[in-house]
Amino acid sequence: MRLRHQTTAMALALMALGVPAWADIEAAKAFLDAEIGDQSTLDRAAQEAELQWFIDAAKPYAGMEIKVVSETIGTHEYESKVLAPAFEAITGIKVTHDLIGEGDVVEKLQTQMQSGENIYDAYINDSDLIGTHWRYQQARNLTDWMAGEGAAVTNPGLDLADFIGTSFTTGPDGKLYQLPDQQFANLYWFRYDWFNDQKTKDDFKAKYGYDLGVPVNWSAYEDIAEFFTGRDMTYAGGPDKVFGNMDYGKKDPSLGWRYTDAWMSMAGMGDVGEPNGLPVDEWGVRVNENSQPVGSCVARGGSTNDAAAVYAVTKAIEWLQKYSPPEAAGMTFGEAGPVPAQGAIAQQMFWYTAFTAASVVEGTPVMNEDGTPKWRMAPSPHGVYWQEGQKIGYQDAGSWTLMESTPVDRAQAAWLYAQFVTSKTVDVKKSHVGLTFIRESTIQHESFTERAPKLGGLVEFYRSPARVQWSPTGTNIPDYPKLAQLWWQNIGDAMSGAKTPQEALDSLCTEQEAVLIRLEKSGVQGDLGPKMNEEQDPQVWLDAPGAPVAKLENEKPMGETIAYDELIKSWQN
Fold it and tell me: Which of 286, 253, 294 is nearest to 270 (CA)?
């Protein structure tokens, strides 16, 4: 907070002297002194050179006011409250950076696509919309933009190769459609202190016959959830009743993300492939050799309602009901996120690293007095249908998107801001605030080597080769806004008990196919749009290799775990 006041004070001081804050490099130097210091991959001379480029490139737009929007997370709060005022002080471009709910961001974007009205000059929207942007061609493809209308305002030090998420924001045409601004993964979270307590380990081994550790499969996760639920952990410094699982189940848009954000692929639904399964992805949507969606239900070769999908939903509901705090069933994503840090949760399979910053606050029950966490994060376990080479988790990649309906000069000014908040000058500091890495150089920065012991495995994960198996929604999904809303409504019916998981998923895949059929008939996506398969006897597809799959006789094999410290060593080796 102190640094935010310093940044504002810097701009006001310059204005009080009668000097426009964007007149020269002095505003930039004041910003670097107050906010950045040595928290950058660039030395001071290179920082000043990069900001001088922004000053020069922004001169045609000085005095312009632009509006951009993002969801409300810590990283974007820092951009809105600290970096946007600094950008104005340095360049003279005033940025209103609105913070709204993720669902609202998608709604605004959808409205702009449908109406052609320029609501915002740039959006930070999830790369989950890459299939939408590539097919509708209503977002500027940045590859052509940077070579054409955006050439004069493209930072020569942008260094796209340094961004770790551009594979998520590139279409099948090889064009870049979005620039990553923040990324976070969903990982396994657990109480490292409890898992290493000798009495706890002995009790678990006596009951289940194998060692307590990071679960490799869902069988072990379930055993650990059962073991801890209701357990008195006061002997290990915990409360007298803990829970073995944390999740959320309210019928709300965030319930849909809970499942489209790779839960199904973690169970083993879909095909092998990185960054997404092909031809069937983690939504259960099959595409043909031309990347055209051809089905979602098993009868058309999809897997949204196959045995792996049913298993995924069944287990989530079972664990929510049996091993989670009673109030979890009525919570949303945002409400459930802070609960593990309150000290009564032993493990959580579906935990977003965006909650890391809130989970390392001094004085909370999950922190040691020396500032190190009592918890760790690790790769999530996989379900019984999962096979080597399949996607194992989700990675959010909130990314800058410029719409074709935005006037060129406004898009150019917004592009300058997008590059400023992702620049090498500011990215290390921004990453220390939000812990949502986008650049390889930042991940490797010495300040994160020093801080790593206090971040519970976050740095180790992002420096490991394992991170490539975590990816956002891919290009199989032709209209994210239309299809995403079907998930929370149908999964909500399963959560409430109104429908069985099978009934809910049958309904979901049918409704997804209805959208795909409408898109095909409308022709709005041209040769990139759906071209639906004819329905067949589902057994034809179940007998074929890959997804969809038939139900296994045994969906709970022996639990398998790995020691966390051994896991970290394997990454480092």
Answer: 286
Contacts 24+ apart (CB under 8 A), 300-303: 300/513, 300/532, 300/533, 300/534, 300/535, 300/536, 301/533, 301/541, 301/548, 302/509, 302/513, 302/548, 303/269, 303/270, 303/547, 303/548, 303/549
What number is the average pLDDT over the span 246-266?
93
Report the SS3 class of residue 181.
Answer: strand
Q: In this structure, are strands 94-100 and 65-71 parallel, antiparallel, or unpaired?
A: parallel
For the stretch 427-468, pLDDT in tens is 999 999 999 999 999 999 999 999 999 999 999 999 988 787
C-alpha 33/C-alpha 129 separation (Å) is 38
Nearest to 183 by CA among 394, 388, 389: 394
List, for residues 489-502, the tens digit of each pLDDT value: 999 999 999 999 99
Helix (H, G, I), strand (E, B) or coil at 164: coil
The dihedral sign for the CA sequence 381, 386, 388, 389: negative
* Secondary element (H or E) of residue 12: helix 2-16
Residue 110 C-beta-side C-alpha neighbours within 13 Å: 14
Percent of the residues in the chain that have a pLDDT greater than 90, as a whole number: 87
What is this structure's pTM?
A: 0.90
Cα separation, 283 vs 287, whole angstroms:
11
Which residue from 178, 69, 179 is spatially nearest to 118, judged by alpha carbons? 69
Closest CA to 434 of 188, 70, 261, 184: 184
Contacts of 103 (CB under 8 A, 6+ apart): 253, 254
SS3 content of the chain, % helix, strand, coil (to 5): 50, 15, 35
The closest of 210, 246, 557, 226 to 383, measured between CA atoms, is 557
Contact by Cβ (8 Å): 297, 509: yes
Predicted pLDDT at 428? 98
In the block, residue with structure tokens 């194992």 = 392
Report CA 353 to chain centroid distance, whole Å.
9
